[in-house]
Amino acid sequence: xxxxxxxxxxxxxxxxYAALENGGSYExxxxxxxEEMPVTATLDIFSIYGNPTLRQAIGEFKRKNSGVxxxxxxxxxxxxxxxxxxxxxxxxxxxLAGKGPDLLMLDxxxxxxxxxxxxxxxxxxxxxxxxxxGGFMESMRGAYxxxxxxxxxxxxxxxxVMIGNGKHCL
Length: 170
Description:
alpha/beta; D-Maltodextrin-Binding Protein, domain 2; 3-stranded antiparallel beta sheet; 3-stranded parallel beta sheet
């Protein structure tokens, strides 16, 4: 996922313009007020902690899917006296009651327990289609592969790289 940042803003009348920088190239985006966009679906997402990569992905998703309302719930939202275990216990109760979120950020969650209990859907078909289309690398498939199924995918990854001329490496 690329990193997009706002370079400049301009308001003219009821329209708002944003110059967005993405990897050295710029894009001018125009926003204008309109009647309430009809929401055709709602997507509920849960994460124990806030995550800038997740927020960026949600922003990109919303730009491409304006009819979908996205609700992000952060478990450790700074409420006094709430522990990570309290948050996980409350989430587990909702999941067992069939009222869990549509998507889970698995960081810090007992995802192997969720897979064992059948609480996470096998998304092998979605992942395989993305690999075939060149959207994901094959190695990403194995990160959350258990018992013949894929139940998650890394949100972000890094590649270690060494650059040098044979004598010196950076």
